[in-house]
Amino acid sequence: xxxxxxxxxxxxxxxxxxxxxxxxxxxxxxxxxxxxxxxxxxxxxxxxxxxxxxxxxxxxxxxxxxxxxxxxxxxxxxxxxxxxxxxxxxxxxxxxxxxxxxxxxxxxxxxxxxxxxxxxxxxxxxxxxxxxxxxxxxxxxxxxxxxxxxxxxxxxxxxxxxxxxxxxxxxxxxxxxxxxxxxxxxxxxxxxxxxxxxxxxxxxxxxxxxxxxxxxxxxxxxxxx
Length: 225
Hints:
By secondary structure, this protein is of the alpha+beta class. The chain contains 6 helices and 10 strands, in the order E-H-E-E-H-E-E-E-E-H-E-E-H-E-H-H.
């Protein structure tokens, strides 16, 4: 999705002052990073969270003082057009390379054996983060799980590059989703990093979480490094 200065129902001067960067608010053409909107927002626009003013400040205002953190990531081109590429927590930094997990998922989804998939980041002492894949196979696939994993790794290497360091992937019967169908990547990220997590209230079937955790533990008894 690409957009320039919006004009419908918003004052353009509020929305045109977006900046993009991961740690500061300086922007450069084609730089990739978090998108923040300069305050103040238009009157009546997202004043707080219901009964949670402190959570509102922590989630949206603390990271970039004077700016509203949208939670999105994207790029600004030389003409000033902003392209929203993904959610900010879907961007992982692998040895200095900023990778969108959505891009990796597109490659995995293109495999004829894969029904759906998810990619999350795991902590790595050397590279900072590494991608970890979960794939759900279509019915009737004859290839073994090991063959599918090898094909997935080769496909990422071919279409994205070796710098993605995608070398860990497991086959699961399903991925956790909300009742509206959104994949719960945050919980998957906690599982592969051996972090504690709370079962989201919106999850469709809570039993999928211990199921995936057991499969992960069978392949990687210790935390992924």
